[in-house]
Amino acid sequence: MVGSKHLSIGLVAIILLGAGFIGPWMISVLTVSGPGVSRATIETSVETIGYAGVGPTSVSLYWTESTDLTFTSYALRESATGETGPWTVIANIYDRTNTAYYTDDLAPGATEWWEIVYHNTTGSRETIPALQVMQPSVVSLTVSQPSSTSAQLTWDNKAVYGGLLSFASYQLIESANGGLDSVTTTITDVAQHDYTASDLTPSRTYAFYINTTDQCNSCVAGSPSTTSSNVVSIQTPGPLTSAIIAPSIPVEVGELASFTCAAGGGAPPYTYSWSFGDGTTGTGASLSHSYDTPGSTTLICTVTDTLETTAKDSTLVAVGLDPSITSFTASPVSLSAGEEVTLSVSASGGYGPLTYSYANLPAGCLSANATTISCTPTSSGNYRITVTVTDRSGESATSTLNIRVDPQRVLGLPQVTGLAVIFGAIIGVGGIVTFLVALTLSRKKRRQAP
């Protein structure tokens, strides 16, 4: 009984094969099911489908060549739903040796299922399981700014090249301020994933994207498939500037002076570095510094932005000593009203030309902007005269001296003799007046006597 079952099933398979109902790929080995019972089963064949290359919108498929002598065609079917369909026939291929197919009308990032239906003169069967293919996304582009007038572009490429699918080129597309797109460069090396766009114009907005072109190796005209990356933008800054704000008056030795560096343009935030011209340095937008030596020195401020662009400004700083008075004299220091006196002052230090002014002068003397003045006092007394010396920055120094002015002398007589004569004259005049008064009174009395 076991042998007869085995024989009958085998005969059925031979009859079906001869009648053309099944293909030679469907014949399998006997299997045993149950104790003491053997039966023949018809199992699936070994035909498969796979892909050799895949891009964002394209795929290169291949499958097992049919060995059926009654082969008629391959039917390539696609499903966007799942491995059980529904299916759409993409192509019918009648050449048994043609076991590869390229298509480029797919959606980036989508999932597709593919199968081949083998047809012969009596029927058909499909590859099981179906092939699942996930389309890669388009190129992802990023941008950075190595300098104020350049853009560093970096991208990836998730495509897998092989079979009928090959790489053609990357094209970097650029536009400025919303203007027309233009091709900045074309790259044919699939492994190159970066490019620096240089010589950009300051103060503009630039947009970039990558066009990636793949192609079919043996298709008509290459059947190119081009996809565009995301768009990235940068703003090129205006020219970086640096400007020193320094005191408008000279800096005095040993005194703190305040300095400020103003930055503009470029790509903030900024950093500031100073060279004070005396061998010392500093950092910060605003700071104070004192100098130990008078003279003229060059102050430099360097501004650096986040793109490592630098801008410098420099200015001359005048460093001086405060003015001082080395001597202040009067000649003579004692004199009479009506006599000439000369005042002389000597000064040093200060910045720029010095000015002079005198105070508490006796009547008859006026202040003048001079190191020496001569005048004739018209009043007597003791005078404490002050001279003030001022430089261009407003720094000043003062000094004082004392002079004595005696009353004016009588001409031709020594001073003491002249006083005696004056007092004698006063006494003499008083005596005469007294005599005349007495004489008058005497005459009146005589007239009144009987």
Features:
single chain, 450 residues, mainly beta, Immunoglobulin-like, 5 domains, 5-stranded antiparallel β-sheet, 2 helices, rod-shaped, disordered N terminus
Brief summary of the model shown:
The chain has 450 residues and is mainly beta. It has helices at residues 2-19, 415-448; strands spanning 30-32, 38-40, 49-54, 59-63, 71-79, 88-93, 100-103, 111-120, 124-126, 131-134, 141-147, 150-155, 165-176, 182-187, 194-197, 205-216, 225-228, 232-235, 241-245, 251-252, 257-264, 271-275, 281-283, 286-289, 295-304, 310-320, 324-331, 334-336, 341-348, 355-359, 372-375, 381-390, 396-406.
Describe the structure.
This protein is mainly β and 450 residues long. The chain has 5 domains: 2-40, no CATH class; 49-134, Immunoglobulin-like (Sandwich), CATH 2.60.40; 141-235, Sandwich (Immunoglobulin-like); 241-320, Sandwich (Immunoglobulin-like), CATH 2.60.40; 324-406, Sandwich (Immunoglobulin-like). It is 12% helix and 46% strand. The chain is built from 2 helices and 33 strands. The chain has helices at 2-19, 415-448, and strands at 30-32, 38-40, 49-54, 59-63, 71-79, 88-93, 100-103, 111-120, 124-126, 131-134, 141-147, 150-155, 165-176, 182-187, 194-197, 205-216, 225-228, 232-235, 241-245, 251-252, 257-264, 271-275, 281-283, 286-289, 295-304, 310-320, 324-331, 334-336, 341-348, 355-359, 372-375, 381-390, 396-406. The strands form 9 sheets. Strands 5, 6, 8, 9 and 10 form a 5-stranded antiparallel β-sheet that branches. The termini are far apart.
